[in-house]
Description:
Layout: H1 2-11, E1 16-18, H2 35-41, E2 47-51, H3 55-59, E3 69-70, H4 76-81, E4 88-92
Parallel strand pairs: 2-3, 2-4
Antiparallel strand pairs: 1-4
Amino acid sequence: MKCHTALLKIIIVCVSILSLSTGAYAVENSLKIEPAALSAMLNQKNLTVIDVRIVSDWRNSDRKIAGAVRKDPHNVSSWAANSPKQNTYVIYCA
């Protein structure tokens, strides 16, 4: 659990919750989330954690949130359009 907390503290700078209700991401409506709050949410079935680091950074990192999926940050419109609109999305880049 300490590893998760430390990792969450590192990534909190980049974390945003995005609502995809319009089919497009809305950064202006994003919120920051505290590490403890995200940790408590990780078991929710309607939560998707998305890692948007570039491929080389992602591959070379030993710090990843369990269950997170990696998506291309340059292709948001494509994967956002196919994401369930009722889900909660946490996007991180560290």
